[in-house]
Design brief:
By secondary structure, the protein is α+β, with helices and mostly antiparallel strands. It has 18 helices and 20 strands. It folds into 4 domains: 58 residues, no CATH class; 149 residues, GAF domain (Beta-Lactamase), CATH 3.30.450; 113 residues, Beta-Lactamase; 157 residues, Histidine kinase-like ATPase, C-terminal domain (Heat Shock Protein 90). It starts with a helix and ends in an 8-residue tail after the last strand.
């Protein structure tokens, strides 16, 4: 009181408030604006309007909470957008790596992604060689002559990357200058001298559980990655480990095929005895078959001439000397065509297929044995059932990632639609309050002043109701609601809630019927929240019913499930069956035009669901369709004294 306005808002000629005050004063019109007060450290919403003595009246209100909520919503939007972008980046990288044949090019892509995800320009990948040496196989962001890379190329920091790989845990060095094991050592001097002031190492652990190395990022400043960055690095490290392990397995298989084929051909030339000794020592399955063709040259069967022990072990069958039709009478035509093609053309083939009768996947390499007119085919095979299932799991993971992206985008879209649509619902009561204040300033008519008072009181209550709904939903979503449970009798509490809301139905001429259990039903609940739940359902029923409709409130006890059952059903508007699934979803409205015309933010049912679930119960909605009424059923666990055993 008595403070000069410009003391609160310095440099008045430069502020929006200064201009709006003068606009209202000079042009004799009502204006409104929002501004931030550094002195008060609050956001202020203001309305200025002319009054009869030639001056202006100004109404200020604290809008800091709304501004903070808007800022929080905007930050959430940016976070969701960032997460969607990052997930898409990881999905694209995973798809690219599934096709990439050059391992070093793929690792370079992985390091580039690691730098982006970890907010740095430096990264390294260290892998364990066959001889057990820990080696930096690729780096990003360092000069070719980097002392750091040179020093740690074949080795690494024992308490850093070595430990991360060995114990399969992430190691974080937030400040290299003060890190035990580095500080005061040659390794520490080289590390800090090359501007490496912080680092993290994430183990490369594949789906099979093998730890093959580490993915590290380094920083030019003391730094600790955020939880979000570490989660993304975990996903990237898993993708990298899967790719490297798969690439190594495929390369080993190719080398093995070449080695074994050369060995087989040499052995066949040398002697039959050496041939059998070699086949028996192989860990790959090897078999020789003779193709059978009909008179038209079409392959119809084949006979196993020979096979090694590994073939029988991998298939679980003794096949030597048997025809394929004797082993599997319903053999698919695919097998005859594949091996018959090799016998006829002499061109070797490699393919992967499942033996359905065994429910096993194999990788095959088939080649012709002998001269042009020979019908003998050699077969090398490896069981790859585990790999195929792992690839299937990766594809399912990709699908889940895409579904998550779609879900995040949908949530973001729903949130934006909610904000755009519901800003009007919050603004309308404010406008009515301002109008009422304006009326009180320009009139001395007691009746009009009383009307204005009623408007202001009613709209203020409406604003409080809207804001309470938003706050309740936020608390439920963030698990911030603390229930104050006590033993209550449900029929008495329901009667109280119904009587508090009976005027809603009396004013509209709606028939309200209450059917209560004759037995006392005791619950261990928060009575205020249970009354709120019943009140929200009664508000909803009153909103969507008309004169002469019937609303029935029923309270019973289900002894089979040990639950109290509260039912609120009406003969009102009803709900389309396709909309029932979204009825309790926040930020989603089933009928936007209808809901807005009736007022409110449309959060009541979301709050009901959240409150019921906090009490360990559940809520269901049912309607046969538009014009056929709606039924809401709430089930809450009984207090132990109610349960009959």
């Amino acid at each position: 009181m008595g403070t000069v306005l410009w003391d609160m808002f310095p440099e008045p000629e430069k502020t929006e408030g200064y201009r709006m005050h003068h606009k209202a004063l000079n042009e004799r019109i009502s204006v409104q604006w929002e501004t931030y007060s550094p002195n008060l450290k609050v956001w202020v919403g203001a309305n200025a309007y002319p009054i009869s003595d030639g001056g202006i009246a100004v109404y200020f209100r604290d809008i800091t909470e709304r501004k903070n909520s808007e800022q929080a919503l905007e930050e959430n939007k940016k976070r969701l957008e960032s997460e969607v972008t990052t997930l898409q980046r990881l999905y694209d990288l995973q798809s690219k790596m599934s096709r990439e044949k050059d391992i070093m090019r793929a690792i370079d892509e992985i390091l580039a992604a690691a730098c982006d995800l970890a907010n740095t320009d430096r990264a390294t990948m260290q892998l364990v060689r066959e001889d057990g040496v820990f080696e930096i196989v690729a780096q990003r962001g360092y000069a070719e002559s980097s002392p750091f890379i040179t020093y740690f190329r074949e080795g690494g920091f024992e308490d850093g990357c070595h430990r991360a790989c060995r114990e399969r845990i992430r190691i974080i060095i937030e400040d290299a200058a003060n890190c035990p094991g580095l500080s005061g050592t040659e390794a520490g001097a080289i590390t800090i001298g090359d501007d490496v002031l912080a680092a993290q190492s994430t183990p490369l652990v594949s789906r099979s559980g093998t730890s093959i190395g580490v993915l590290s990022t380094q920083y030019r400043r003391p730094y600790r990655p955020s939880d979000g960055e570490m989660r993304l690095l975990d996903q990237l490290s898993f993708l990298a480990a899967e790719f490297i392990e798969r690439h190594r397995a495929e390369e080993a298989l190719r080398i093995s095929e070449r080695r074994y084929r050369n060995q087989i051909e040499d052995a066949l030339r040398e002697s039959q005895n050496s041939y059998h000794l070699l086949l028996d020592s192989m860990d790959q399955g090897f078999g020789i078959i003779e193709m059978m063709f009909n008179e038209t040259g079409y392959p119809i069967n084949y006979r196993f001439i020979d096979c090694n022990p590994a073939f029988e072990k991998l298939t679980g069958m003794a096949v030597k000397g048997k025809f394929q039709t004797d082993i599997f009478p319903e053999t698919e035509e695919f097998w005859y065509k594949k091996f018959g093609q090799v016998a006829l053309t002499g061109e070797p083939i490699r393919f992967t297929n499942v033996v359905k009768e065994l429910d096993r996947w194999y990788d095959y390499y088939a080649f012709k044995v002998g001269e042009h007119d020979s019908r003998i085919v050699g077969i090398l095979l490896d069981e790859i059932t585990y790999r195929i299932k792992a690839e299937q799991a990766i594809r399912e993971s990709e699908q889940k990632a895409l579904a998550l992206v779609a879900e995040l985008e949908k949530a973001d879209k729903n949130k934006n639609e909610f904000i755009n649509a519901k800003s009007h619902e919050l603004r309308n009561p404010l406008a009515a309050v301002v109008a009422g204040l304006s009326l009180m300033d320009i009139t001395e008519d007691k009746q009009k002043i009383a009307q204005a008072n009623d408007i202001i009181r009613r709209q203020t209550n409406q604003l409080c109701h809207l804001v309470d709904g938003l706050l309740d939903l936020t608390r439920i979503t963030n698990n911030k609601i603390k229930l104050k449970k006590e033993s209550i009798e449900l029929t008495d509490l329901t009667t109280s809630a119904v009587e508090d809301h009976r005027f809603l139905f009396d004013n509209k001429g709606i028939n309200l019927v209450v059917c209560l259990s004759p037995k006392k039903i005791f619950l261990e609940v928060d009575p205020i929240r249970i009354e709120q739940i019943i009140g929200n359902l009664l508000h909803n029923a009153a909103k969507f019913t008309s004169k002469n409709d019937v609303v029935i409130v029923k309270v019973t006890q289900d002894t089979n499930t040990s639950e109290a059952v509260i039912t609120v059903m009406d003969t009102g508007r009803g709900i389309d069956s396709k909309d029932l699934g979204n009825l309790f979803t926040p930020f989603t409205q089933i009928d936007k035009s209808l809901d807005r015309s009736l007022g409110g933010l449309g959060l009541g049912l979301s709050i009901v669901k959240g409150m019921v679930e906090l009490h360990g119960g559940r809520v269901e909605a049912y309607s046969e369709g538009i014009g056929k009424g709606t039924k809401f059923t709430i089930r809450l666990p009984l207090q132990k004294k109610n349960i009959v055993t």
